Predict the 3D structure of the following.
Amino acid sequence: MRLRSGLTRELSGAVADLGVLIPIAVALIVKNGLSATAVLLPAGGLLLVVAAVYRLPVPVQPLKALGAIAIAQGLGANEIAAAAILMGVIFLVVGCTGLVDLAGRAFPKPLIRGVQLTVGLLFLKIAWGLVSDPPSSFSAYALAPAWAVPLGILVVVLAVLLRRRPVTLVLIGIGLVAMLARAGGGLVAGPSVIAFPSLDSATFWTAFTVLVIPQLPLTFANSCLATADAARSYFGAAAERVRPGRLAITLGSANIFAGAISGMPVCHGAGGLTAHYAFGARTWRAPAALGAALVVVALGVGAGLAAVLPAFPLPILAGLLAVAGLLHIGLLRDLRGLHGWAVALLIGGLGFEANLLIGLAAGLGAWWIPVGLARLTRRTKARRRVASHHE
């Protein structure tokens, strides 16, 4: 009974992060014309790698800033593939050379908590948008906000009150049944066609300037630094394998694969780790189960996913995403001192209202300038004491 209960909680935690994955995946398939099989395979494959390498429920998510820009501007598969390859090469290099771990030393806990606050607020913003102003890719099946908002709030309440139960499994199960019923039932067997990208210098330049540059600070700070920090917060010594440099290597490798098949660029994410942990995931079984499911769906029914995925009920996705955002913001509770709180709130506010790069730049200055001045003052006083002693 204990084994069954443990496995149920692992599965419940495994699906708790689908509120990020499904909306971006659907938009890339429906609006940007990506193959459904190519969209799901990189995510499923990286989840299987995560299970083997980290032995913990380290999450796999779409590259959110990159995906949002690609969707908003209607970029094609070639530009998205080029961006995935560039992200893959960049993070493989900084991960293998240790540059990520070295840079991470300049980011004390208040800066990391500021990044996590930004992500939590963004999760809440995305969740609200799903029910108040549904994405165009879901428009054929979206409920009116007068119905969607209360249902989303109900999902939040149920998920919070019952998060020690397999509530996410029940909610996702209801969503899948509703999706198939609303979309007319049947799925088409077999994978969708995978098209290899056509790349040239102009495509890479567009991908780098439009997609990669806005995504880099978020991936560095959230996928590498904040995910490693959240893993230590939740799992202690068991998270020793989850280091920023290693996270950079695994997400970099997955993105080279994603680019090669014109698929969805992917990353890790601290918010996803909070979602997995909050709803019961504790071991490698959660990412292994979700990864295997995504691979099976991609290869088994990928050909029909574009027709049925937009029918998945948005209030369920929004509710789970909102709960993950709220719980992720809760990581700030271990901050101590006015200076630490001020820096975290500064990064969170600027990261949410402007972008994370501006927030990080301001946070680095707000943290290290006072720290540097304090150290300089102490050294000056120490030298004066030594000088007066000699006199």
